[in-house]
Design brief:
Length: 221
């Protein structure tokens, strides 16, 4: 049975990403990196479910989702862009396999960074970010989600790369085996992957070929 929660606040993150702060139901629990299926409690949308990751910390009084809206087609994320404080969402069971296993390298493609937000915020609050690294690929520099927040996290190393922004001063390299060989080097630690399915599959294969332990590679199954 879905749980109905009210949107308390929306906040712009990038040109197509927003934070949605919503009510936290009593005795509601989730782990950093986990998600739920969400729908909009409006006519024609209540049965349209999409998975979104919690990006708030567990100890916060409200829940937060950080969601990219695809404005070029009339789907759920486009409809969410029209939601504001006072509207309602429907939440379902908590699920997800991306859990923190120890220091390592987090690799994301675009909005695939969202499962890492709560994990890294949780580690920051505990003072446990040392030894972790975040590598994210985006189309353009303006697409980077929470760049300032990640760069300000004490102990977290960040590396940004863009694939469609020739005017940017950031790296302009696709994340593949050659990229990993050049920019990671040490493959004897944990890896966390999230992004388009093809990207994740390619990186899993590349990491194994480069000597990473398969059991030390975490991704959404």
């Amino acid at each position: 049975m879905p749980t109905r929660v009210q949107i308390l606040k929306t906040e712009m993150v990038t040109h197509n990403v927003r934070h949605y702060r919503v009510e936290k139901p009593k005795n509601f629990h989730f782990g950093p990196g986990q998600a739920t299926e969400v729908s909009i409690d409006k006519p024609d949308w209540a049965d349209q479910k999409r998975p979104f990751t919690f990006t708030s910390r567990q100890d916060e009084p409200d829940l937060e989702f950080t969601i990219k809206s695809y404005r070029d087609h009339p789907g759920v994320t486009n409809a969410l862009w029209g939601c504001e404080a006072g509207d309602y969402l429907l939440l379902r069971d908590v699920w997800g396999t991306i859990q923190y296993k120890g220091p390592g390298t987090f690799i994301a493609g675009g909005a695939g960074v969202t499962p890492f937000i709560a994990i890294l915020r949780h580690l920051q609050a505990k003072g446990g970010l040392e030894g972790n690294r975040l590598i994210v690929s985006n189309q353009t520099e303006r697409d980077i989600i929470l760049r300032d927040e990640f760069e300000a996290m004490d102990g977290l190393e960040t590396l940004w790369t863009v694939t469609g922004d020739p005017k940017s001063n950031l790296l302009q390299e696709r994340i593949d085996a050659d990229f990993l060989r050049q920019h990671v080097g040490d493959f004897k630690h944990n890896f966390y992957l999230c992004g388009p399915d093809a990207m994740v599959a390619d990186l899993r294969g590349a990491l194994e070929e480069l000597g990473a332990d398969v059991s030390a590679v975490t991704w959404e199954r």
